[in-house]
Amino acid sequence: MRACYSTWSGTYYDEYYGQKAPYPPVHRELLKRVLAEAGARTVLDAGCGPASFLRDLAETGTDRYGFDVTPEMVAEARLVLQAQGVPEDHVWEGSVLSPESFRPPGKGRDFRFDAAICVGVFPHIPPEADLKVIRHLRDAVKTGGLVVIEARNQLFSLFTLNRISYEFFMKDLVQVEALRAQAGEEADGVERALDQIRRHFRLDLPPVRKGKEGEPGYDEVLSRSHNPLVLREQFAAAGLTDVTLLFYHYHCLPPMVEAHIPELFRKQSLTMEDPEDWRGYFMASAFLLAGTRA
Ligand SMILES: C[S@@+](CC[C@H](N)C(=O)[O-])C[C@H]1O[C@@H](n2cnc3c(N)ncnc32)[C@H](O)[C@@H]1O
């Protein structure tokens, strides 16, 4: 994981938030709005990267804190935020898997934030840690405080018609082994049925993203997507209330056909950006999940 991100610290912001970004960072305004509506004055960004989001909060007057597991990201975040007057000890090295990481150096056990956010990190944590990390985020905020996480939308795979869709069908929807176990004389039929289903998907897509200088690429390290319905249940299980799903990065058509109409694809997808549209469950590749500590 650290190897994947270590050479990315200097260019990450430009690649995902700058002019070069393949799709505008629509979640930035969404996240800013959610924080502003909650009246958050102190914010912790868990897995802050090169302060990619925190740097853009400069004009809001928010007291900003962040940590990250990759030392190069911490160094870059410090550099960027120090230039904006944020004290060096507001950024530290830590992992979302460890509860101690959620407390800034030098602050007492009772210190709590108005809001804790976690963007781009959930893809990289193992499934059994999801609830634990949600609890860490909850414990980092005051009563009435806000928790916001970002995740890649697993249900989007129902729209992409590719290898990821096929894996979702076979691992999460269809109970393949149960079918086989119960097939009896229809065993051949089950295999023919599964084979017919398989042929409906482009299994060669999407291409696997490789790393830069010999380090593992994004798709070569653990990079999961999440079912928003399951994560919403986990928020509730962690005692978070007013849980809200906000979808973003819409796709007007499955990405495999984007090359036919690149400009129209982008323009039309942008016009679809509505965090509360039910189409987001299927046509948006990412979402924010917000909840309040009761
Ligand atoms: C996709 S980047 C997102 C950075 C930033 N949050 C943003 O939204 O632009 C993912 C970041 O998560 C960090 N990360 C991965 N696993 C982590 C963990 N267990 N604890 C803390 N940070 C982690 C990586 O080092 C990387 O900086």
Strand order of the largest sheet: 3-2-1-4-5-7-6
Q: What's the total count of β strands?
A: 7
Low-confidence stretches: none
Q: Could you say how many structural domains there are in total?
A: 2
What characterizes the major β-sheet? 7 strands, mixed
CATH architecture of the largest domain: 3-Layer(aba) Sandwich
Percent of residues in helices: 25-40%
Which structural category fits the helices and strands?
Answer: alpha/beta
Structural write-up:
The chain has 294 residues and is α/β, with parallel strands linked by helices. The protein has two domains: 2-156 and 209-293, Rossmann fold (3-Layer(aba) Sandwich); 163-198, no CATH class. It is built from twelve helices and seven strands. The protein has helices at residues 2-6, 12-17, 26-38, 71-82, 130-140, 157-160, 163-173, 176-182, 187-198, 228-237, 262-271, 280-283, and strands at residues 42-46, 63-68, 91-93, 113-118, 141-152, 240-250, 284-293. The protein has a seven-stranded mixed β-sheet, with helices on both faces. Helix 5 links the parallel strand 4 and strand 5. It is globular. The two termini are 33 Å apart. The model has no long low-confidence stretch (mean pLDDT 95). Bound molecules: S-adenosylmethionine (SAM).
